[in-house]
Amino acid sequence: MGTEARECVPERPAARRAARGFALRWGPLTALTVAVLAGAGLWLAGRRTAADWLWAAVTVAALAPAAWSTLRRLWHRQFGVDVIAVLALAGTLVVREYLAGAVIALMLATGRALEAYAQRRATRDLRSLLERAPRSARRRRPGGGVETVPLDRVAVGDRLVVGPGDVVPVDGTAEEAATLDESVVTGEARLVQRAVGQPVASGVVNAGAGFGLRATKDAAASTYAGIVRLAEEATARKAPVVRMADRYAAAFVPFTLVLAGLGWLLSGEFVRAVAVLVVATPCPLLLATPIAIVSGLSRAARRGVLVRDGGSLELLGRARTLLVDKTGTLTAGRPRAAETVVAPGGDRDEVLRLAASVEQLSPHVLAAALVRQARDRGLALADPTEVTEEPGRGVTGRVDGRLTRVGQLGGELPQWAARVGERAELAGRSVVWVSGEDGPIGAILLEDPVRPDARRTVRRLREAGLDRLIMVTGDRPATAEQVASAVGVDDVLARCSPQEKAARVREESRRAVTVMVGDGVNDAPALAEAHVGVAMGATGATASADVADAVLTVDRLDRLADAVEIARYARRIAAQSAVVGMGLAVAAMLVAAVGRLPPVAGAFLQEGIDVVVILNALRALRGGLRRRAVAPESRELLDRYAGEHADVRDALAGLRDTADLVATAPGSPECLPALRETHRRLTERVLPHEAAEEQRLYPALASALGSAEATSPMSRGHVEIRRLVDRIGAHLAQAGAGPLRGDQVTDLLATLYGLDAVARLHLAQEEEDYFSLRD
């Protein structure tokens, strides 16, 4: 009962505000409409003098505020097209065309009401961020119990309680498992699970049972607060495109006045001048362009891209050059355990378990990658003892009484370890060595993987009109070149400092409208130098988000391509609405100037033009995206098979080790059992996955990809993977109890190394071309 009462209280002021807003938007229009209809009733009843007086009163009621607004703008040296509306209203009073004046007044009121509705509809997503901002938090007392405190009193380290349905007040780490709805902040519709110790961003909604949260940031520094600040600026600042209408007035207003004067001068009838002014009332220019741009802002916000203002959206739509940071933008931004290699006869899972167990207490970013990989594989970590950490060298401790050292390795390396080091160097990966009492027992290769959607996003950006794409990074040239080649950018700037990044952005900005995308404190100067700076805000890059013109609130690079396409579409709709509306108005003005369109008819015609262009501007709320829609059932299949890729990669993990063993010791007792185990994993875990994709996933994607032929290259990959697996099986059948014959070794090596390359390439292509379709 108490909870229900608590939930009802805030709704009453909200309901009153909504009712007051509705009255302010539609009240004037309703009153004027009733007055105009009442005048029509009086006119039909034969009381025409009373009708004229009522219509004149309506005209004056619209003229007074419009004239005051125009005079105020002129006082501030702001000359706009609204002066025509004032002249038209005044002119109808002079020539006693009171009905025409009333219709113009009704037209202006309708335009304002439609503008208010359109802006409310277009900014609904931005405003919802502000309305949902939490104001308080429930904090655990040191002595027990829970207290409700204002949000600004929450400090780092406080233990909070997040109830069912609550908005998470500050950034923190979960003290209990939690189910969260992150759609408002990230744009992702699916519920997500957060385990104990995992970070939770402010602004997301608790969709499950209540859980404890330990604050890692205060309210002002939290993710949601930064997004709200951008939303407030986005709703408060006026877009440059709106001011463009006033620049058009420099040509349109003189043309209108000259045409009206000519009509009066040549005919001697002042009513013609009034008719020209009536149909020239420039609602299309005043309303259509801002509505289209604000609609584009809302559309981008729904796609997870919060653009600071209309000017930034307009510049994004004109961009020709893109500079993008590598780490955290084109790549995941955090290391991932790509491969675990063990000494001959070793156990891969045991090596990873020992390393992760020791690293549990280390704050190092590589330690977090090892622990995360072990937990993802379901390994049971032990509590380490006697743990010591030597900065720059590694961590040492005992796991189940067994001495384990994780970190760098000095001295002469065994042959297998030397090969691992060479392989890591060629692949641009980091190596973490795992050693025991008698030396190294394994190595874990870490990488910062390229985002699966990076290459597809680059292609879409080129299709959207960006013709120059540059990657800037502080990483090594060899690693940078590998990433650049994988994603398809035009140029690479490696080993560059933040100052060098900013200088390159400044240089490119002199040539064309430039966008810079970055993540992290070191990218903030470059973002500030660009025409449009875009921050990867979902990763918590608050410093870069503070200076950015747009923030990707979802950790997906393809939303940048969405934002560019939306921006170009909104600009196109804005220009189209303005040009069509002004063109129709000019045609009507010419007809009025020759006396073929009286003021009353012109007023009704202009009303119709306004409605047409405003409705056209609202088209910016939809359309413009090139990506094809994926059916919900197809998305479910994509989620399922994307989730299985981790298991497929795990099954492939020992393939390279087995190949190395066949190459170096084909006659050893371990060789044939290792080959049989590899074949078993391939036939039981990889081939069923490939067959299920072929039968269910690929047919479901045919419509989203345009045709069934689009999956043909991937189907050919399935055929090649099965052929190579069957070839390994044939060699095992020939070998019997062993050992392998010399002629088998050569073909097996080609088969194993070839299968490793083909399977990994196939997985990468699927993730790039198919799984990035998940919305």
Describe the secondary structure blueprint for this structure.
Blueprint: H1 2-8, H2 11-44, H3 48-75, H4 82-94, H5 98-122, H6 124-131, E1 136-140, E2 146-150, E3 159-162, E4 172-174, E5 178-181, H7 183-186, E6 191-194, E7 199-200, E8 205-206, E9 211-215, H8 223-236, H9 240-267, H10 270-280, H11 283-302, E10 305-307, H12 310-318, E11 321-325, H13 326-330, E12 336-342, H14 348-359, H15 365-376, E13 385-390, E14 394-399, E15 402-407, H16 415-427, E16 430-436, E17 439-447, H17 454-463, E18 468-472, H18 477-487, E19 491-493, H19 498-509, E20 514-518, H20 524-529, E21 532-535, H21 542-547, E22 550-552, H22 558-593, H23 599-617, H24 632-652, H25 655-664, H26 671-700, H27 702-705, H28 712-735, H29 742-769
Helix pairs in contact: 2-3, 2-5, 3-4, 3-5, 4-5, 4-10, 5-11, 5-23, 6-8, 9-10, 9-11, 9-22, 10-22, 10-23, 11-22, 11-23, 12-22, 14-15, 17-22, 22-23, 24-26, 24-29, 25-26, 25-29, 26-28, 28-29
Descriptive terms for the model:
775 residues, alpha+beta, Calcium-transporting ATPase, cytoplasmic transduction domain A, 4 domains, seven-stranded mixed beta sheet, 22 strands, 59% helix
